[in-house]
Amino acid sequence: MAAMNSVHGNDNHTKILVVDDEANMRHMLSALLGDAGYCVDTSADGRAALELLETGTYDYIFCDIRMPSMDGMAFLEAAGSRLAETSVIMMSAYGTIDTAVEAMKKGAYDYISKPFKPDEILLALKKAEERESLKRENRALKFRLERIAQPRQFGEMIAESRSMQAVFELGKRVAQYDITVLITGQSGTGKELMARGIHTAGKRGGQPFIPVNCAGIPENLLESELFGHKKGAFTGADRDYKGLFEAASGGTLFLDEIGDLPMSLQVKLLRVLQDSQIRPVGTTRSKTVDTRIVAATSKDLAAQAEQGNFREDLFYRLNVMPIHLPPLVERSEDIASLVQFFIERYQARFEKKITGISARAMSLLMQHSWPGNVRELENVIERAVVLAEEPELDEDLFAGLGRPENKNSGLDAIAAGFSLKSGRQALEQVLIQKALAETGGNRTRAARLLEISHPSLLSKMKTYGIG
Ligand SMILES: Nc1ncnc2c1ncn2[C@@H]1O[C@H](COP(=O)(O)OP(=O)(O)OP(=O)(O)O)[C@@H](O)[C@H]1O
Question: Is the whole model's pTM more than 0.90, yes or no?
Answer without folding.
Answer: no
